Amino acid sequence: MDHMLNKVLRVGQLYDFYSALLTEKQRDCLNMHYLQDLSLAEIAEEFGVSRQAVHDILRRAEQTLAEYEEKLGLAARYSDERRLITEVVASLENLPSSVRQIPELSEALVKLSSLLEDTREV
Question: What is the Cα Rg of the chain in Å?
């Protein structure tokens, strides 16, 4: 169960970064299967193809997403940057309140926190 959830989350993340680089049919199939939770049979019926054809499209699309990530590393970089920002925010929040009230530091904390909020969807 965890493996499937991890796969769905991983494909979803890669889809967010690289979907524009896929064919329209690959995008549609991934969207329908992973984001709309349609079965292979439902997708096959929608496109007028076999379940096997949908399976092949999904497998190739997933492989393509993985290859783009291997070459470009945008999702990994995003995760690393988000983790670092989270650590910095936590460190700043642990400073004494008298220090956190320094205007420049307070402003930096607000900006970093808003970065984390703005990127939750990705």
Answer: 20
Q: Provide the whole-model pTM.
A: 0.78
Burial 69-91 (b: 16+ CB within 10 A, else e): beeeeebeeeeeeeeeeeeebee
**Distance between CA atoms of residues 46 and 14, nearest Å:** 24
Residue 104: count of CB within 10 angstroms of its CB: 7
Domain positions in the chain are 2-72, 76-118
> What is the residue-wise DSSP string for 65-94?
HHHHHHHH-HHHHHHHHHHHHHHHHHHHHT
Q: pLDDT tens digits for 11-54?
A: 999 999 999 999 999 999 999 999 999 999 999 999 999 999 99
The fold of 2-72 is Arc Repressor Mutant, subunit A (1.10.10)
Q: Are 14 and 31 in contact (CB under 8 A)?
A: no
In sequence order, what are the residues at sequence separation of 6 or more whose Cβ sits closer than 8 angstroms to the Cβ of residue 122?
13, 16, 17, 78
